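Hi R.,

Here's the chain you asked about this morning:
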Amino acid sequence: MDTAQQEATARARELQRSWYGEPLGALFRRLIDDLGLNQARLAAVLGLSAPMLSQLMSGQRAKIGNPAVVQRVQALQDLAGQVADGSVSAVEATDRMEEIKKSQGGSVLTNTGQTTSSSGAPTVRRVVREIQSLLRSVAAAGDIIDAADTLAPAHPELAEFLRVYGAGRTAEAVSHYESHQS
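And here is the predicted structure, written out as tokens:
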């Protein structure tokens, strides 16, 4: 790899870090390890071609262009956390990955079984992930943090909202959401 390619790859990985919290190679390798997948299976679940996944992992491409794929990545990260803490078994994880693979993204306003609890209300996690997805589709995490820093002196609560939902982890955002419900 020549110097120009190395610099382009380094830039792409830095952009990935600002948009997704870490380079996609590290994120995807962790999902592969945590969920017992191979690259081909991960690509299939995400709805990416194997070459596209490889380009994202190697830093040849910086951004996931399809918002539904970004939502699937977030869903797989949540699932990996649930497998790690023991709240979801390996068998359940396999079933959930099939659901994630079939998901098209979408709004909390749609009333499908995947977006609602048994009472018919959207689940807190789903609402939070929709808020995160919307914010992240508008701006990169680094830009959201910059906006939050700008707002913080006059509007600290709004700045906190942007930081938590725009650049934080889903678990933190769920806690924030639950603490602000009356």
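One quick note: The chain is about 70% helix and 0% strand.

Cheers,
M.
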